[in-house]
Every structure is written in structure tokens, then in C-alpha cells.
# Entry
Amino acid sequence: MCGIVGYTGPREAYPIIIKGLKRLEYRGYDSTGVALQNGKGVKVYKKKGKVAELEDAIVGKDLHAHVGIGHTRWATHGEPSDRNAHPHQSSSGKLAMIHNGIIENYAQLKSELINKGYQFRSDTDTEVLLNFIEEIKTNNNCSLEEAVRVALKRVVGAYVILLVDADDPDTIIAARKGSPLVIGVGKGEHFLGSDASPMLEYTKEVVYVNDYELAIVKPDELILKNLGNEKLTPYVQKLDIELAAIEKGGYEHFMLKEIFEQPQTIYDCLRGRLDAVAGTITMSGIQQYADQIVKANRIVMIACGTSWHAGLVAEYIFEELCRINVEVEYASEFRYRNPVISKGDVIIAISQSGETADTLVAIETAKAKGAIILGVVNVVGSSIARASHGGAYTHAGPEIGVASTKAFTAQLAVLTMMALKIAYIKGSVSHDRYMHLLNELQEIPEKVAWVLKHSDHIRTLAEKYKDARDFLYLGRGYNFPVALEGALKLKEISYIHAEGYPAAEMKHGPIALVDETLPVVFVATRDTYHEKVVSNMQEIKARKGQVISVITEGDDMSASLSNDIMIIPEADEIVAPMLSVVPLQLLAYYIGVAKEQDVDKPRNLAKSVTVE
# Structure
């Protein structure tokens, strides 16, 4: 959740850290802070609010330092405030630490420290861990590195921690378990971050730190060890991300940029994999487990939020094409309900960041029971990617907007290709249907571009409906999960209450909400369920509801029943969700903007949910 940055080297640390925090602000923005080490002690500056507020608050302060760490917070323990902001300083003032994650046994540790005379200035679990480390260091007269190692053997929970020590002015000590940590390798300098974005303009060589590893980072030296004090060889990888990918590129918001990137990101996802002319799908991360997938009795998809909605669409696709039973589970529930997992079951873990804590723990549970784990993630080198047996990257590029957009359509593209590949191998789809769907999928980027080109009127719709207190989103079949996703986007961005339902369920309760003030959004594209959805639209119209419809081009019947329409091109119902979701993304975005909300950083949310 939280964003962390560190630097040690010959440059001024503060500008690098502040710029890095701005790039990581999508991970949390309740409060922010920096700790700077210049050989004369550790200076800590922190402030409730966003990075810009910290910048304003410390104008004129002594910011000179060649070593520093910075943090932007998504609050867990303790409300957002100056005193709960990171970095925290130890009781002696010599150590400063930032932390991403949750220390589950912090209360026990805190009680032990209070009994030893420690006093605490914040409500955080982070300050408890920091003082626990200092207590070990002082009592055992050992190095900070050794104290961290000993402390972490006692800790229960998830963490990435970065520490600086007034007595060791050029060193950063870092460790991780369950939250991401990347170290950038420069010439006589090192960069640290929750992801690679803070270091892109300085180096393309990075090391991904694994769970239970500890890093001793100096300007010209990087030492990796495990918690048993054994040295490890850092594996340096080359980044293929360009700096432009994490800039707004002239758009008002990252969210709008990422919506308009979808023709390219879906194309990038298909490129090199889908060949409609040859009739082939090349996915090496799936091919090596193809026989096991074909023979599997069931597939379980686990995910959270938007990725869960992608899994729901994929459930329809896999069952229709592959004739394999599919279940879609909330990762947060899956691990706690003692799920029945048999050897040979296939688990597909879907996550934009590849670091979603609930999903990561869920696949570890399934893996221990003999399941085959396939990851569908966006971030190369992420924890879920490394924990999976196989899978596929979505290649959507960095997604900075907290409300996911392009990741959703990229996930659908990957999952559709997976289903088609398995169906072809299994022989559960006819050759003609298979070739038709390959061509339909190949045309999706161009059709998404068409939707975006004809979307200007959605801004006007947003102005019309921005003051509504509630929305109802309805769809059937492949479009039911799209309705859920549309409702989620509106909730996230505009703070308007919205619910998604299967259209047929509307009359089993939600229809009681319908009156002349309620906007009801139908995902009513021309498909197997179209006549049924038209009937549902008539039921809403009879009760004076305001009908807004996503319809297929040329559908005069749906248009005549709607107060307002958003049009997509004709497409097979299996691939249509990648089109029908786009107008709903734009509607949510423009309503959020019309209500003057910060659409890139919605309140209480963060991009990469690395705590349970």
C-alpha cells in the first residue's frame, strides 16, 4: 500500500526522494515524510497530506544530504496525522525507519517495550518495530544489520522496512516479507523503491528483493543476505519501461490517459501471441501446463476488486469454450474458509500489481495443497509472478491511476487467449468458432479506438447525472460483471453510491429503489440475452427510471427505450466486455471530474493492496 523510496550516493538525496514519492503517491497519500542523513545525525520531516504539502511545509529547511529515505502512507495503525506519518525515529533519535505492511504482533512487542520504560509518540506498529530493533541493538551491542535480523525472526506480519542510522552515515538497511522492494543499481549509487518508477531516469538495472531477504545498501556496495546471515548473489535485471510511461503525456489525469491507452495496451497484450491468419496462440507460460489444465476437473480464479470482475467474465468464457468447471473466489475469503483444493486443480491468480496480499496468501495456501498456480499479472518480477508455476503478463504498462482501467481490459485479453488456447488443445471448440474468435479478438484494439473516438458526448452525460445520489448498473451474461465493474468505478471516483446486479435479479429487490430520480445503467449490447435485457429496460421505464444504456451500433430498439445511450461497435459476446466497459470507465471519470474530485487519488484508496 504505502510507497517507499531510498537513495544513497553522491547526489543530493532530497530531490530524488521527493520526485520518487510523487511517482509512488498512487500507493497512498494520507501523509508523507523524509529522513535525511548528512553525517551530522538524522533529520526527519513529515506532514499529514500529500507530497506537495510536505514540500510546502519544509521550504527553507536544511535538506542537504546524500543518504535518505521517504514514505507516502496509506493508514493502517493510527489515523492520518503528522505524528503517525513516517519516517519514525527511535527513542534515542539515532535510527529512522519507514515501513510498508502490518506487524500483526505489534501489541505484544509494544507491551514488552513499555515494561522496559519505552514511551511512544505515535499509534503505529512501525514505531514499535523500530524501538524493538533499537532495544536489541543496544542490549546486544551489535550492528544495526544484526539487530534487524534478530528482530524480524520475532515479527509476525508483512513488511518492507528501510532504516538509516546516525552512526553509519552512508548505509541504508532494508528487508522485506510480503511487500515489494526494488533496488536500482547505478554507478556509485543505489536507489530503493516499492516499484521501479522512482529510479527510471537514473538506472535501468534493478534487483528484486525476495521475501526474508535483508539488504545492506551503500553507495558502491549492495550486500544481500537471508535471515540466517548467509550471503546471496544479487540477480540484476534490465528494465524495459520508459520514463514516458509514468508521465501524464498531456492528459489532465492519469486515469484518462490510461483509458485512452487501451487500444495500444490491448494490442501489446495480443502482439506476439495471437496470429489470426495462422490460427495460433503462443503463450509459453500456459503451454507447459496445457495438459494439466485440459485434464483439470476445475479451475479456481482468485482475485480482488476489478481483477475479480475480470475473473467473473473469464468464468463465462472458460466454461463455454473449455467445458471445465470454473469458480471465482474473493482472495480475501478463499484463504480463511478452509477451501477444498485437490492435487491437479488449477488456480488462476489475477492481479494488476502482482503484490496483492490477499491473493498472494491464497495462492500459497493452494500451492501447498498441490494445485497448479497460473498468474495473470501486469508487473514483471512481482511476488505473484514469482510464486506461480506459469502464467502470462498482461503487458499493460504502469497503471498509475488508482481506479484500474487498462489493467482490466488487458486481463480480459489474456484470459480470453488462455481459454481459446486450452479449448483448441482440448477440442472443445469447433475450428470455425475458434478462427472466428481469433479474428474478433484481433479486431478489439481498433474497436476500442472507435469507442474512444465517439465518446465526447459522455462528458455531457456526466454533467447531467453528477448530482444523482445512487446509480443502478444492470447486465446479463458476459455483461453482468461489466455492470459490477461500472458500478465500482463510479463508487471509487465520484463517491456516488452504485450497485451492480444481474438484470434479471433487479425485480427480486432492487426495483424497489426505482423512481424518476434513479439513473439505471444497462449494459445492453446485442448478444444472446438481448431480448431479455430489453424487457428489463421496459420494466424500469414503466417505473419512470432514468435509463442510460451501453448499446451496439444500430440497435434502435434499445435506443428508443433509453434516455441516453453510449454506443459500441458490433462484436462477438465473448469479446464484447472489452468494449462495453470503456464507456462506463469514461462515465465514472467525467462524473468524478464534474464533481471536482481527485480522480487519480480517490479518498481512502491505494493502488497496490499489500496488507490484508
Summary: The mean pLDDT is 90. The CA atoms of residues 452 and 604 lie 29 Å apart. The chain is about 35% helix and 25% strand.
